[in-house]
Amino acid sequence: MSAEMTAPTNQQTQTQTIIPRKAIYKTKGSTSDVLEKRELISYPATALSQNLTVGENDTSKKLTFQIAGDCFLDGMNSFVSLGIKTNKYTSYLSGDVSSIVKRLVISLPSNSNQVLEDINGYNELQSMLHVINGSESSFESNWSSGMNSLLNYNKTAGSKSSRRFINLSDEGEFKTLCFQVNLSGVLTSPNYLPLMLLNGLRIDIYLSPASEAFHYDPVYESSWDSVLEATETKLNKEYDDMDVSEKNALHTGLATFTNKPNPPDSTSPLTYTVTQPTFFAMTIWCSGAYTQSLVKASESNDGILLHYDTFRFNQVVPDSAYCNFAFPDSLQHIKSVFMGTYYRKKSTDTHFNYVCNSLKNFTFRIGSRIYHQVSNEPATAMTNLLLSMGRLGSYSTNALGYSAYPRSKNVHVFDFQTCKEEGHKANSGINSTNGRHLRLELNWRTGNSNTIESPTDNSVLTALDNSVDYKESHLNCWLEFSKFLRINKAGILVVE
Asked: Distance of CA 90 to CAs 43, 55, 155, 178, 220, Å?
């Protein structure tokens, strides 16, 4: 936790003793004189967001929450709850529950909808961070994922249990999932957010199209036999040992319990429905005297300054084997870049989070400075990733048998901080303002994988390197950077 408030100039503000800290209160009185109560308050989504059905290519649906009150918001202990179902028995989430979150926008509705945070590609970034940060066992136990599909979700055994989890839930038609919006810098700030000074927050969660949020192959919906073969069940009697009347009773019972159509249903498009979305806000209520002193401080010239880290999405689509990309944003404190090489989207895609081996190497430049080149060879790429994440000395991530090792070579993190250990409270990133644009030089692979073919029928016996041509891939990257929120007598200003 940060014990001090930092400003863009890395100097202390005059109001630091007035702002409540997370678990640390700097006031003249005791904590008990300031803090009156903590209360978890539910904020249902707006009326138009209460029951949404999302189609295969539908990008228009979103959940909207209006969070307000004469209190502070503890975003780190707040979460979203919702019910979800699909119209298929054999679909399952592409990753964790954040697979349905395409974009997150947090704004101030009473201040001309000023945007505090806008994270596009939220689901892809979350999936990438799962690969970087955890082993398979942590995927299974991570409560914020809300499900077990991350455990071997791209393998047969994992997909069977994932189908059961989302479509044959003990709850019946809808499965309840809860998750923390843990990529949001606003909601995971170490500072409590003064809702009374901001006049409330608006949180918009744009939902991913069904074809992106879920794995689905219509061949599994061709009959009840194919459905039950592809889905884990808890039958007391083997399905193949049941007679016709028993099977019919099972089919009728499952259709009634889940409110899904009977197979075959391989022609209708995949959809999913979200119902009763609710934001559970942990609120902090302080004494009237304390709140009045904070309001008075916010009306001064210096005002109150809060800082938080967030992400900005960019996509690089190469048109040659070498390309030079200049990030268009002018940012004062760029801390890190998170990148992954992905297949270009096709009409047959059923997921979003498969990286591919398409990059040879990359180099960052800013102004006249050239950073070290990073090769995409597995050992070099993995070592640079661990170094950037501050995990090079961790045995679990250095072990050669680490489960994410072969996948991580196509997921990269590059860190620019001069004092990474203090990065959460010191703005130590690079500055890309005043024409000093951050640039990224990329060398891509050309041609297909090195393969060994059969002399008999020309079939591929094995692919030696699994490389992908640059024409079939693109790079998705997210800049991690600091933003500043100043509240003073002139109003509310956001600086990045």
From this structure: 32, 16, 14, 22, 6
